[in-house]
From TrEMBL:
Biased composition (Low complexity): 1-40
Descriptive protein name: CBS domain-containing protein CBSCBSPB2
Domain CBS: 67-125, 133-188, 241-300, 308-348
Coiled-coil regions, chain positions: none
Keywords, alphabetical: CBS domain, Repeat
InterPro entries: CBS_dom, CBS_dom_sf, CBS_domain-containing
The keyword Repeat appears for this protein: yes
CDD domains to which the protein is assigned, alphabetical: CBS_pair_MUG70_1, CBS_pair_MUG70_2
Region (Disordered): 1-61
Amino acid sequence: MTTQTSSGKRSISSIRRTTSASKKPVLQSEESGSGSGSTSVNENISKPESPLAQPVSNGERTVKKLRLSKALTIPEGTTVLDACRRMASRRVDAVLLTDSSALLSGIVTDKDIATRVIAEGLRPEHTLVSKVMTRNPIFVTSDSLAIEALEKMVQGKFRHLPVVENGEVIALLDITKCLYDAISRMEKAAEQGSALAAAVEGVDRQWGGSGSGSGNFSSAPFPFIETMRERMFKPALSTIITENSKVALVSPSDPVFVASKRMRDLRVNSVIIAAGNKIHGILTSKDILMRVVAQNLSPELTLVEKVMTPSPECASMETTILDALHIMHDGKFLHLPVSDKDGFAAAF
């Protein structure tokens, strides 16, 4: 997924507006020397204007019911290398940035590091995060529905949303936190499909018992209804993967620099490492952040086979979307290679 853009969407640029009557909320900004350790200091961030809260309905979870993690917040004058080390120490893939007035100024993600720094040949130790951050990130309120937050991220093609409660930025929401709610929605749809099939089957049995040509008539609707149920409520990955789907491929002997350029050119945040189009491993922008930049390795000299995840779990074109979501949710990862019947990479 791409990083956030603020075009056409409500942003938290209003987070800079302060009044003498309002008390500035506080965020924790993590400071460290060389990245080997860190201490927390308070950073003041002014209140944003929260968008209208959506009413909670149908017992669905709100954002504040998710396991939210406190956002890592650092000054925008920090170098990319130091930022990556702090992100690695916290095992996070995004960081909020503050300006010289301790006001929220932007966000930097692992994809920004891979595509705006490494792919462009910039040196992490000399590049400030302010040069590659996304300014005025879109946010979500804590009382918004989790599924609505997911829809906002999917539509905007980004993975992270600052969470605001009572005018304070309290956390940074990752799209993985919303997968459970997406799975729940699809499972409910599948149950509805099963109920529909059962209802039609019951009606058909009544027709069959009426003595009006039940022999061939009663069996005909069953396969049709089952097929309809599978396609509408349990669609396979093949229904959303087209022949023109872009698959970012690199070879095991390519350097990380080449992989990052492939991510940038195809606007993705992961590549498949393949030999003869057979899947050998995957490399994500988070891997580049954690395993290359944070370790101060050279992207030009480090081969992808040295830092990739080998033999990743894969799905097939026949795997249902629901099963694919379960695989990612249970495995706690966001990247699932899809192979065709011959084992070749078909999508990501």
